[in-house]
Write a structure and sequence with these properties.
The complex is a heterodimer of chains A (304) and B (255). Chain A is α/β, with parallel strands linked by helices and 304 residues long. Chain A folds into two domains: 213 residues, P-loop containing nucleotide triphosphate hydrolases (Rossmann fold, 3-Layer(aba) Sandwich); 68 residues, Alpha-Beta Plaits (2-Layer Sandwich), CATH 3.30.70. Chain A has eleven helices and 13 strands. In chain A, the strands form three sheets. A six-stranded mixed sheet of chain A has the order 5-6-7-3-8-9, with helices on both faces. Chain A has a four-stranded antiparallel sheet with strand order 11-12-10-13, covered by helices on one side. Chain B has 255 residues and is mainly α. Classes of the chains: A alpha/beta (304), B mainly alpha (255).
Chain lengths: 304, 255
């Protein structure tokens, strides 16, 4: 029976008097993409570095592929690929040579040239690491994480600072890995990344899990009606016309969000009400809630 | 997606020798491509060798090149095993390279083995270049090559220990400054070109126990044709090696 990719229970980590992790419990299934989502300082990197064996938790249990990342490090290292948030490569090392060196640490590595090409770095094989752009450095780091054909990869903010094209290339790699049965644990503060890639999203804040589930279950079946109109509409009055349980807010000024059982009936009611007020509702749209909304509700804070 | 890029998991560590050779190769390339490192490991030793052998800069005992060549070989060992390695490792620590390597299948023991191998390869290159220049200038070593090799290995261990002790505890910038300073001081007082016999007794009591002095004195005596093992020099170097490597293994911080 396969143990989960990652199983953390009651994790506590303090740096001096600051509490980074406060009893965090988390499970990442095999073969799935698990996204740890949270604002800066929430404990994402601490969590991942404890899983990678770089740090020890002050309390709690850590199992990665059923093993202890510190005690069983020698057995885990070949099976786990990691991508640090930054650095880790000698500045003068050429991209291709460095990836080739890392590939030689593994028994059945991917072809380093093909991997460079896949990540759009073929022309930079002879470029020293320090002369690569931030996005290119990130992609090289991703290449090194996957070159040993690991069972599990940890990606810490894999797409921070990437342009949209490079971000999509990175997502493609993660999707391909998932299709091949590789487990992925990634941290991010990009909602769209978590929504598009993850089988499971774990939202953490202040060192603990505040919500977890599939992106779909977190955002729920509820949908929103959004429109723009002149500022200061009387929403109290609008609400009296809407079904019980609906909410309406103006945020930011001139932008309105109605939540509840958004269907044809509600749509009709809102447009009729606007007409009666002599207001044109522009950019009227029906959308699902986003993880951003969920996060704001749970923590009362913006993600970034 | 090409056939070469099948991401299906197939994890496993390569055999130790392949990992060590790959890492050692990367380290040797890094040294040979680094301008400052080359200055330190080859250009300065060659200039010292040629300068002090050809020009009557100092009063030296015996034939000038026979005195200078062993001293410069010792200087070369110190520049690679101590100065170069301390600075290189200090910055690797600073840039997170050691941390990143720690997450690969290459173990810490494997990494140290690779570093040692890389140092020995660079030293072999130095010996070839400096030996050729010295021979061209009329140097005539009188046997003792095996003992010279033993002294160089013991010196490498002692200087590597000191390098790792420094790189594993100080900040990278502090290591850079200190390693260069120590190099210059030891170049001056370690018998590389200035005969230690010129020093007052009080200073000699200290300098005679330094690893550089043991290495220059030992090499000079075995390559100068003195028979018998250089016991005192070897003993001093091995004592430094045991002390520094022991301390380094306890104090080295990988991050």
């Amino acid at each position: 029976m396969d143990s989960p990719a990652v199983a953390l229970a009651g994790l506590v980590k303090r740096y001096g008097r600051a509490v980074a992790l406060d009893g965090l419990t988390l499970r990442a299934e095999r073969g799935a993409v698990t996204a740890i989502l949270g604002p800066n300082g929430a404990g994402k990197t601490s969590t991942v570095e404890i899983c990678e064996g770089f740090r020890r938790a002050d309390a709690g249990t850590v199992r990665v592929l059923g093993l202890d990342p510190v005690r069983d490090a020698a057995r885990l290292r070949p099976r786990v690929g990691i991508m640090l948030q930054s650095g880790g490569v000698p500045p003068a090392a050429r991209a291709g040579e460095w990836l080739r060196t890392v590939s030689r640490f593994h028994a059945h590595p991917l072809d380093w040239r093909a991997l460079l090409a896949l990540l759009g770095l073929a022309e930079h094989a002879r470029t020293p690491y320090r002369r690569l752009s931030g996005g290119q450095q990130q992609r090289l780091s991703l290449a090194a994480a996957v070159i040993g054909r690991p069972d599990l990869i940890f990606l810490d903010e894999p797409t921070a600072g990437l342009d949209p094209q490079a971000r999509h290339a990175c997502w493609e790699v993660v999707r391909e890995l998932r299709a091949r049965g590789v487990s992925t644990v990634l941290t991010t503060h990009h909602m769209d990344e978590a929504e598009k890639l993850a089988d499971k999203v774990v939202i953490i804040d202040r060192g603990g899990v505040v919500a977890e589930g599939s992106p779909r279950s977190l955002t729920g079946a509820e949908r929103q009606l959004r429109f723009r109109a002149r500022p200061g509409l009387d929403l109290e009055e609008l609400l009296t016309a809407l079904p019980m349980g609906s909410t309406a807010k103006e945020s930011p000024v001139g932008h309105y969000v109605i939540e509840g059982h958004v269907g044809p009936e509600l749509l009709g009611t809102v447009t009729a009400w606007c007409a009666s007020e002599g207001v044109t509702a522009d950019d009227l749209s029906v959308e699902r809630r986003t993880l951003e909304d969920v996060f704001l509700e749970l923590t009362g804070r913006e993600l970034r | 997606m090409t056939a070469a890029l099948d991401f299906t998991p197939a994890p496993g560590a390569a055999p130790l020798h392949r990992m060590v050779l790959a890492q050692a190769g990367a380290e040797v390339r890094a040294v040979l491509r680094n301008g400052e490192q080359l200055l330190l490991t080859l250009i300065i030793p060659v200039l010292v060798l040629v300068g002090f052998s050809a020009a009557p800069l100092l009063e030296l005992p015996g034939r000038r090149v026979d005195f200078v060549a062993p001293g410069v070989l010792a200087l070369a060992v110190m520049s690679t095993a101590f100065t170069g390695q301390a600075i290189g490792t200090g910055f690797e620590r600073r840039y997170g390279v050691l941390k990143r390597l720690g997450a690969t299948p290459l173990s810490r023991a494997g990494l140290l083995l690779a570093k040692t191998l890389a140092v020995i390869v660079v030293e072999a290159l130095q010996v070839v270049v400096l030996g050729a220049v010295a021979l061209a200038m009329g140097w005539r070593p009188h046997g003792g090559l095996l003992w010279a090799g033993a002294l160089i290995l013991a010196g490498t261990a002692a200087f590597s220990g000191l390098a790792l002790l420094m790189a594993g505890t100080l900040r990278a910038e502090a290591t850079l400054a200190a390693a260069n300073l120590v190099y210059l001081v030891l170049l001056g007082i370690g018998g590389v070109v200035i005969p230690v016999t010129a020093f007052p007794d009080g200073l000699r009591a200290v300098t005679d126990l330094l690893p550089i002095t043991a290495l220059t004195g030992g090499l000079r005596s075995v390559l100068g044709g003195e028979s018998g093992p250089p016991a005192a020099a070897l003993l001093i170097l091995l004592a430094w090696a045991a002390l520094s490597l022991g301390l380094a293994s306890r104090t080295f911080r990988w991050e």
